[in-house]
Design brief:
Structural class: alpha+beta
Radius of gyration: 22 Å
CATH superfamily of the largest domain: Butyryl-CoA Dehydrogenase, subunit A, domain 3
Low-confidence stretches: none
CATH class of the largest domain: Mainly Alpha
Mean pLDDT: 96
Order of helices and strands: HHHHHHEEEEEEEEHEEHHHH
CATH topology of the largest domain: Butyryl-CoA Dehydrogenase, subunit A, domain 3
Helix content: 40-55%
Number of domains: 3
CATH architecture of the largest domain: Up-down Bundle
Strand content: 15-25%
Number of strands: 10
Distance between the termini: 33 Å
Shape: globular
Number of helices: 11
Length: 383
Amino acid sequence: MEFNLTEEQKLLIKTTKSFVKNELLPHEGLLEKTDNLPKELYQEIKKKSQEVGLYACNMPTEYEGGGLNAFDLTLVEKELGFASLALAEIAWRPQNILMASTGKLIEEYLKPTIKGNRKDCIAMTEPGAGSDLRGMKTNAILKGGDWVINGTKHFISNAHISDFVVLFASTGKDSNDRNLISCFLVDLNLPGVEVSKGYECVSHRGYVNNIIHFNECKIPSSNILGEKDMGFELINTWLDATRLTVAATSVSRAERAFDIALDWSANRKQFGKVIGKFQGVSFKLADMAMDIKLANLILMESAWKIDQGTLTSKDAAMAKLFCTEMIGRVSDEAIQICGGMGLMADIPLERIWRDARIERIWEGTSEIQRHIISRSLLRPLGA
């Protein structure tokens, strides 16, 4: 693994950092106050992200995407993660599972999404099936030439501004009476589909979650992504990488929180000297710096492994687990160092602290990540 960045990678970081500074950060205050972004502003930022090559930068060049490998994409995700999620996500990186598209799905879904003419969202979670994906009730039954879908999904990010959903649904039972899962591409304007407002969330203001109801919704039989009953294979192939996105943004926000705490420690005076002189503060800074360093190493190693074709689910779980728990520790300590001011909206620490809480839940809870890691250790030993 090479630790020195190439000139191209340095330019990529510089470009992304400039985009964040000039196009995203100025609007964080508005987002926090209103929990919303005007459509005109959204479109303006989207256009600028396309102009600088960040939009769909994770998609293949053969379909006019940016073609970044996993390591370079992680560098971008880290820089974008410095800003509020609702702003960073305007520079949309489509679900990488769409690269499993074949035939007409490429022309109808993949290519238009890369060009920004269509937008995707993904739906797995249900009111009765969160971590237990096999427990999902949403089902798809093949009738004639159509799949007929019924069920409800919730916690679906930005479905209200999406054109279609990457939907996981039950399509049968295995020999142990467990759900077999398949993946579909479903247009959200079809009869039988209703997108409604989701829940008020303490984390990530302006980043909307929705509920999607399917009632006898019909889609062509060709709108299946991958093979029937092979949804978990798709998840294992494509979605481990999305955990690195959560890890990358967690590291970035931790670095932002640390910089605020470090500056405060070097300038805030109490008892006649700057508070960084007190071990109660300086030792916190040392622990935070080590936490961030370790998180960066595990993150970038995992990204490198994707490009080498050696990433395992254990690797992705370790990166997601460590980085998301690290941001919780660092943001909390940063607030402790800044005292009462740390909880005031005048500086972004309280927002980083709030936003950090959800990172240990979505894309697989910390407990699920520990389960993945522990099973990978014990299973080879027959335990």
